[in-house]
Amino acid sequence: MTFRGAKYFDGRSPVAQAAVVRLDSARGVAGIFAAAESGEPADPPLAEVRVDALYLDPPVGAGPWVMRLPDGAVCECPQEVYTALARERTPGTLARFSRWAESSGRVAVVCFLLSVVLVVVFFRYGIPLMAENAARGMPAEIETMVARESMRALDRTFLSPSALAPERKEALRDGFDAFAARKPATPTYRIEFRRSRIGPNAFALPAGLIVITDELVELAETDAEVYAVAAHELGHVHHNHGMRSALQAAGHFIVITVFLGDVSSVLSVAAALPSVLIETGHSRRFELEADTFAAEFGMATGLGVAPLVSILESLTDAYGGEGKHLSWISTHPPTAERVELLRAIEAEHPE
Amino acid sequence: MDLSEFEAREFGGSDSGGRTSGRSEAGEILREVVYENPRFTGGGGEYFRIWIVNLFLSLVTLGIFIPWAKVRTRRYFYRNTLLDGHAFDYTADPRKLLIGYLIVGAALLIYGFGEFVAVWIPLLLFVVFAALYPWVRWKSLRFFAAYSTYRHIPLRFTGTAGGAYAAFLGWPALAVVTAGILGPYAAFRARAYYFENFRYGDARSRFSATAGYFYRVYLLGGLAIFGGLFAVSMLVGALVAVVAATAGGVEDYGGTGMPPLLVLVPMLLIYPALFLGIAVIRVFILNYCWSSTALRTPAGRVRFVSSIHPVRYGWILSTNLILTILTLGIYLPWAKVRLHRYRLECLEVINAPNLESITGAGREEVAAVGESAADWLDIDFGL
Ligand SMILES: [Zn+2]
Q1: Of A8, A79, B299, B377, which is most buried, counting CB atoms within 10 Å of its CB?
Q2: Among positive and negative, which fits the CA dihedral A227, A230, A232, A238?
Q3: Domain check: are A161 and A293 in the same one?
Q4: What is the pLDDT of residues A260-272, one digit of tens each?
Q5: A220/chain B closest Cα distance in angstroms
């Protein structure tokens, strides 16, 4: 078989020679000849190579078809040479798959839809699952270190030492311990009090560290309300939410960096947007899980669900009706939804 | 800017549309001068298919395909870019890149998690990174050159590791010590390190820029950026105050941090403002550097005229960003093609056929760790 219209480069000089490719399938040899004025191949051949020593480099998109010779020479040839050779010398499976997939609009659409599904599934289930497992396997020393560092960072920024009387703090701790003792299998925890620059608040750090702000203690009408908040935070501790959300955030960061790495840095700003929305969705789920734990804690220990409902309502009032604005992007579910969940759990335990 | 005017006078005007020729008016040697812009023969739709297949395979293989995807992408752009009727090519082996990616990925992982364990871990990594940075850049330039070919002849980068440490650590350090007075000069040295050290066969690049132009551009650009940043930060401050007042503080009970909206607002404003300011400075510097570079081939010099327009460039960057966000990323391939096209439109090559006269090409094997690091860190080669 003879193919005209090839270009031959010897690999040392940039000069392109018009060439003719002749395939001798009986001998398994490809000959590359300079093309004479008439277009006929001129003897002797520029190169003669065994077909199995050729490296076929398919184009990406619509570029030239490239055939690489073992000595570094290159032949840009018509697609037919490639088709004739490909039967004997096929490029890698992945390269062939990519080429096939890229050349069809329909496959591209399928790939697009599958990619979207994969990304959603991975972010919704894959990363949380991996974070959960990693958090479970996390050595206690590291958890303690993380909790200590986070506490230090918070003390520098949002928190200052508590102004509550030591007896008051002791009473609150003892009161909650008494309730916790009535529920089997409570995780280990430690309660800290801090004055805060961000109003009434409470949060759980890894290693069972629960922080309650003075402002929250002041806002609470009864001690039971403080215990209810502590129970909610104990729910975060029980489900290891602190470590899991840290790991999830790191996971999102890595995945987004990896897949948008080749995008110029302006676009990585855009990448932060979905990440924030995802983070928000996850923490809403964590909050509902912690509420569920707190309600079950309440039912099991006799603390009840009412204190949590009333402190939630006080908090909502203190922040000026949380459900009305920002609720779609807020890290917390609307209060009404949370209260409804608490009531439902209460109804399940007829006591 | 200055140089392209000079170029136009010397060669009797040019038409940037396609390939034109004219007679040199300089006198003695009446030789034909050929002007040509590299052409991109691909398109957004075609690149979209390649991009989406790459993305899909990267996802399915949990990221292992990423080096292949990167090589395919670069190969697509190179092979479909023609100068004087001949294509470029990118011949790197993705398997080599994979190792580098794994190393850099591990470092990134430690960097990302380190923050949660102890503050000094990211700090230590930062110091290590700063010490390795010139070496990485040197390696990546060598790798990038060795696997980029034109007419199937690889480029070569002949800069030394010592040169890289001077350009990317020594001079910047001096710039800091002198409170920025040597800043533009350091930038000049860094650019010179690229443009002086490329070779195509036996044709060496020659770089005739001077530091004076850098001083002018950085002074004016710096003033513009600070003015813009000041305006943006006033706006952000006002917005934060308004939101804080209406929301009555931070309602978060259970988590930490500010409402995400407050983080988003400054991010969405400051980054693009800063980026556009830096882009304008880069455009002027890039135009000047390309226009000051020549390749000496046996048949005569090959020169470049770069005439990227800052406003048009900024317009393309910002509309690309907005369209990409609005289409949730789907516009990305078209954005990339559009930018590539524009850059080629603005790069005129004078006497490209002279490149056919070079000899003494050789191929060298170069390790890929540097290249992949540079890829992650989004280092641009100024092409
Ligand atoms: Zn909570």
Answers
A1: A8
A2: negative
A3: yes
A4: 554 444 344 444 4
A5: 14
